[in-house]
Amino acid sequence: MSQRLWLILGALVLIGLSSGVSILVYTTVVGGSGEPSAPISAPTLDLNTPTPDPREAEIARLSTEVARLSAENAALSTAAAVEAATAELAATEEATPEATATPEPAAAVLFRIVPDESEVRFILTEELRGVPTTVIGRTNQVAGDLLVDFAAPGSSRVGVIRINARTLATDNEFRNRAIRGEILQSSRAEYEFSEFTPTALTGLPASVEAGQTVTFQIAGELKVRDITQTVTFEATVTVVSEDRLEGSAITTVQRGDYNLVIPSVPGVANVSEAVRLEIDFVAARVDE
């Protein structure tokens, strides 16, 4: 091999090493320490705020339909439709007081997630130096409230679930710094927390008691950085006692939906687009 070729190869190696060192230094600087800025907490649920009655929305819809049809003042067929809609509205209003009586606030019990006994995880796959690898990021910095009505579970509510994304950690500190500095950007104050705001609970049973396990769905808005998407978690909750709940919830999101771009790093390839999100939690009764 000629001396010139050796020089070219040497230069390429030096450039590669220099690039790798630069990436390492940059990621180390911007990634931060992973320490939370403050103890984790989330907005509390108000015991005195009644659960919205879904029949109220239906009554409002029917009232709007009656007004629209009446205003058209069209032929007999339209008049018949008005009459039918009016009759449906009257029947709904008549059934509402008895069927949708709001439970007394005392029937609902407030539970709060216990961070030290809970864990949030993200799971994805990648090739690390050519080896298929499952990456799991974990944190116990999660908070949120659950308001449970044991007599009428459909009236239960789940408050905002807040996670300190800065504290998510895998088994690789270089990867952790890349997550904090470039992917989730959670080293920045405005992106330290991710939040899930529930909007609907479906699939709950007619009643629930101590010792029972229930499965249901929690739909809501998941915010990561400055992007919010609608997601649905499959949840399982066990009523261990009147003072303790244990549960889990799982969903899958796509990195592209949150513009989570993996930085180009030597040795890392084929990072999965799908990311599985999991939470295992314990919630303790709060007497306020």
What does this protein structure show overall?
The longest helix is centred in the first third of the chain and has 29 residues, at 3-31. Strands 1, 2, 3, 4, 5, 6, 7, 8, 9, 10, 11, 12 and 13 form a 13-stranded antiparallel sheet that branches. Helix 1 packs across helix 4. The radius of gyration is 27 Å and the shape is globular. The chain has two domains: 32-51 and 102-285, Lipocalin; 54-99. It has 288 residues and is of the alpha+beta class. Mean pLDDT is 83; it is low at 18-23, 51-58 and 97-106. The protein has helices at 3-31, 54-72, 76-99, 173-183; strands at 108-113, 119-128, 131-139, 142-143, 145-149, 157-158, 161-164, 193-202, 213-224, 227-241, 244-254, 268-269, 274-285.
Output the number of helix runs. 4
The counted number of beta strands is: 13
Overall spatial form: globular
- The structural class is alpha+beta
Q: Please outline the major beta sheet.
A: 13 strands, antiparallel
CATH architecture term of the largest domain:
Beta Barrel
The CATH fourth-level homologous superfamily of the largest domain: Lipid/polyisoprenoid-binding, YceI-like
Count structural domains. 2
Level-1 CATH class name of the largest domain: Mainly Beta
If you consult CATH, what is the topology of the largest domain? Answer: Lipocalin
Computed Rg: 27 Å
Strand content: 25-35%
The N- to C-terminal Cα distance equals: 81 Å
Uncertain segments are: 18-23, 51-58, 97-106
- The average pLDDT score comes to 83
Helix content: 25-40%
Order of helices and strands: HHHEEEEEEEHEEEEEE
